[in-house]
């Protein structure tokens, strides 16, 4: 699954670096499974108490319960939502991830009623970890392309 995993720094990894990479992979896997399986509870235990996700456009999602709502919202709008790892790199307690995702628009999404259109897009997330859990995420999505596909322009 993590064939595109890279780490920066010295070639010989310390036990701490190895642990940090394992934490990042575990958290990322939980997030992907939560989205792909439609099971938000998969993220239980991988976020800090004060987790925050900063979204494109200045919005944010707070706590694991807030992020679970985000997962539910995407799965409601795109019941066949599928997220795939395109790129994953770790550096200490930080990671960068690029995802490809797709789904059929069968539920309301950002004020747009269901169109039945197939949507494919990419997103990037920067992750920061504390004590083995995800503390903060900055998630960037290509909303313009998604909206064009929903409107049938792409």
Describe this structure in words.
With 154 residues, the chain is an alpha/beta fold. It has helices spanning 15-37, 63-77, 143-150, and strands at 5-7, 47-55, 60-62, 82-91, 94-104, 118-130, 133-141. A 7-stranded mixed beta sheet has the order 1-4-5-6-7-2-3. It is globular and about 45 Å long. The model has no long low-confidence stretch (mean pLDDT 89).
Summarize the structure.
This protein is an alpha/beta fold.
Topology record:
Elements (H helix, E strand, L loop, with lengths): L4 E3 L7 H23 L9 E9 L4 E3 H15 L4 E10 L2 E11 L13 E13 L2 E9 L1 H8 L4
Parallel strand pairs: 1-4, 2-7
Antiparallel strand pairs: 2-3, 4-5, 5-6, 6-7
How far apart are the termini?
Answer: 30 Å
* Overall mean pLDDT: 89
Sketch the major β-sheet: 7 strands, mixed
Strand/helix succession:
EHEEHEEEEH
In total, how many domains does the architecture comprise?
Answer: 1
Radius of gyration: 16 Å
Overall shape: it is globular
- How many β-strand stretches? 7
The CATH class designation is: Alpha Beta
- Stated plainly, the CATH topology is called Nuclear Transport Factor 2, Chain: A
Helix amount, in percent? 25-40%
CATH architect. name: Roll
**Poorly predicted segments:** none
Strand order of the largest sheet: 1-4-5-6-7-2-3
Q: Please report the number of helical segments.
A: 3
How much of the polypeptide forms β-strand, as a percent range? 35-45%
């Amino acid at each position: 699954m993590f064939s595109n995993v890279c780490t920066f720094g010295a070639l010989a990894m310390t036990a701490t670096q190895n642990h940090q990479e394992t934490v990042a992979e575990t958290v990322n896997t939980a997030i992907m499974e939560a989205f792909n399986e439609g099971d938000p509870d998969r993220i239980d235990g991988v976020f800090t108490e004060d987790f925050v996700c900063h979204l494109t456009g200045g919005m944010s999602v707070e706590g694991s319960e807030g992020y679970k709502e985000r997962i539910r919202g995407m799965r409601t709008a795109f019941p066949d939502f599928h997220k795939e790892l395109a790129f994953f790199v770790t550096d200490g307690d930080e990671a960068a991830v690029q995802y490809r995702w797709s789904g059929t628009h069968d539920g309301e999404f950002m004020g747009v009623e269901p169109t039945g259109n197939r949507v494919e897009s990419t997103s990037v997330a920067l992750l920061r970890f504390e004590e083995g859990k995800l503390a903060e995420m900055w998630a960037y999505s290509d909303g313009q392309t998604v909206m064009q596909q929903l409107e049938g322009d792409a």
